[in-house]
Known about the structure:
- The chain is of the alpha/beta class.
- 29% of the residues are buried.
- Helix content is 43%, strand content 23%.
- Strands 3, 4, 5, 6, 9, 10 and 11 form a 7-stranded mixed beta sheet that branches. A two-stranded antiparallel ribbon has the order 1-2. A two-stranded parallel ribbon has the order 7-8.
- The longest helix has 28 residues, at 59-86.
Amino acid sequence: MQFQQLHYFVAVAETRHFTRAAERVHVSQPSLSQQIRALEKELGAELFSRARGNIALTDAGEALLPLARRILADTDTARREVQELAQLRRGRIRLGATPSVCTGLLPDVLRTFHDLHPGIELLIEESGSHDLVRELARGALDLALVVLPLPTPSPALSTVELLQEDLVVVSAAAAPAPRRPVRIADLEGERLVMFRHGYDLRELTVAACRAEGFEPSFTVEGGEMDAVLGFVRAGLGMAVVPRMVAARAGRDLRVTALARPGLRRTIALAHRSDVAPPRAARELQRTLLRSRLTAPAEV
Length: 299
């Protein structure tokens, strides 16, 4: 049974005339009649009574008509659904990002994308780069914004660099001001508020301190970005955070640059290299690449 045959059958059933039905579906009358006979042969029953030139539905035709209409309607709905997805009217993107990227980089870009494609649902997963790489590999994410270099490089992933961003020191506005600019060595003995294990910023900061020959001291550790900023506001210590996060943190935090060469991190857009992202995800990818996110001016 073919969709075309059902289409022809419904046209004859509604017009009760083979020639007019052929004109409606834009085929020759002999071709339409041939397809109707082929459908009847496949079903093993006549669908129309053709007595004395009058066309009427048989019992089999009456039974088939509502089913045929439903099948054709479902087919048309499926076609429209696919076309809407292709035209970015509807869809879903599963985007992973580190918490600091969600706080500092994504809001403006996602607003731009949403304004262009309001029907696309955005599902955001916050996690460290290590977890995001694993989620990409198993197909749970379409795209991810990760920090380079990847903790476990994978040939199955493709990455494109988006941004190199400076890290800065934040402290409570009411606390004594640190020297400007702050050297990594100046953090020795200072009270630091530190992120949880698995956080890219934690690994970067601890590695920088060890490169200067000391272990950092933590007054509080284990928080996410919002919690760390809150602890700093409360005067529990200083923290090393991305410049974009600091720019959005508010006036109750003091932002101090790190002395050169300072600390920088590279944000990249990653996706599986063996599977093309969905159309909507590819459009978000283009939006991100066009934006080429830029960091705020020097503090």
